[in-house]
Specification:
Two copies of one chain form a homodimer. Chain A is built from seven helices and eleven strands. In chain A, the strands form two sheets. Chain A has a seven-stranded mixed β-sheet. Helices cover about 25% and strands about 20% of the residues of chain A. By secondary structure, chain A is an alpha/beta fold. Chain A is globular. Chains A and B meet through helix 7 of A and helix 7 of B.
Chain lengths: ~230, ~230
């Protein structure tokens, strides 16, 4: 009985950390007193402690305490015993690297599959898919594998960006990058724009937020999915 | 006696493939009749044949023939016997993956260190650095290692982009990504804007083109390097 929120970003432009999600999180984590925070992705390279404080401050406004996974002696047990889990954004390569180094990927999958409520933002959302091959992040470290949780049967491209009209930059658009992915991989990819999130209820996945999301399947034209709808293919 | 051109991009906005570099390439590859082309990076997933044709068409205007490495029976020998080598852009992960799979990385390094004239653009430039950890590309395949040629003693960030003023997008800027790299890595990184290239003459590296380039060193403020100057740190 999965119960997950998989968000494109922690922060939408012009509002504070997690602010746009707090009403949703209040319901989602109803009854949870202490949340386990996984700070491994270290945005801008900040320390685990500083990152955990950021999460703690946001969740204090809905009366939920936050403790970082690094504050526990045994990371696996921390995951097994947790009432709820939040993996923050940052660098997906380093996040996945640390999940492997701390040998917690399979434990995390187990508790999420069994219903421990979860929040992922950005890198913390990328890891919910089959693998991390659609991250936008820079490969600053070499993880032992790109395989991730596979709690949903497709991949996430967080912070999805539409091609910028009139841009003179010659770097690949996001759509081109995902098309290149499909030359080598079969998995579907969902481009989640900032402000969008997925709500996973057992095996059902719903698109939430105001925006549409862009679904890329191998050998098919990409399509826009409506908010509120079930994601099926 | 290295002799390399390491370009940020193959194409600048508003001109055709390699057009802005052709006068330089005419001198650089002076005396070369046939260039060996490495099409492994497959931009937009195009075939090796199609990609080689693109390179062939551009070089025909300066009377140089082009043959793809995939057209040779033995890739290592093709590299050893070549008069000049061009590695095109595309996806750096797949490029590095194929360099390892075809076991040609060390051979390529050897001939470049010994003076076979080289052109790299974009992904083909990223591989000239110590490792590919500053690519902007999507990790669509998992290469056996991120270690690359190390023909220059630093890393390249091709298609370097300055932060976009007034952007509402919450994804990391290029500068933030490189700062995250320096939390885990010591290597200096040169942000090469589109239209810039490096000229490597033995151990000397000069910045060419009209623009400045941005040098990032660990625990230092980034600085702008002037075109024409020697790159030292």
């Amino acid at each position: 009985m999965k119960k997950m929120i998989i968000a494109s970003t922690s922060t939408v432009h012009g509002s504070s950390y997690l602010e746009y999600l707090l009403p949703t999180l209040k319901t989602h984590f109803n009854g949870v007193k202490q949340l386990l925070f996984i700070p491994y992705a270290r945005p801008s390279g900040i320390s685990y402690d500083d990152y955990t404080t950021t999460a703690k401050n946001a969740f204090s406004t809905i009366n939920i305490d936050v403790k970082g996974i690094h504050e526990f002696e045994n990371a696996k047990e921390a995951i097994q015993d947790s009432e709820g889990i939040f993996t923050g954004g940052g660098n997906t390569f380093e996040l996945v690297n640390q999940l492997y180094k701390n040998d917690v990927l399979s434990t995390l999958k187990q508790v999420l599959d069994n219903g421990t409520p979860y929040l992922g933002t950005s890198a913390g959302s990328n890891i919910c898919g089959l693998n991390m091959k659609n991250t936008n992040d820079m490969p600053i470290v070499y993880p032992p594998s790109f395989t991730t949780l596979g709690c949903i049967p497709f991949n996430i491209n967080a912070h999805y960006l539409d091609p910028i009209e009139g841009s003179t930059h010659m770097g690949e658009t996001r759509e081109t990058r995902i098309k290149e992915f499909h030359v080598f991989n079969e998995a579907a990819v969902l481009g989640l724009r900032e402000g969008s999130w997925l709500e996973v209820v057992d095996e059902a996945v719903f698109l939430r937020g105001k925006l549409t999301a862009r679904l890329f399947e191998q050998n098919k034209q990409p399509i826009e999915l409506k908010s509120g709808g079930l994601i099926e293919f």
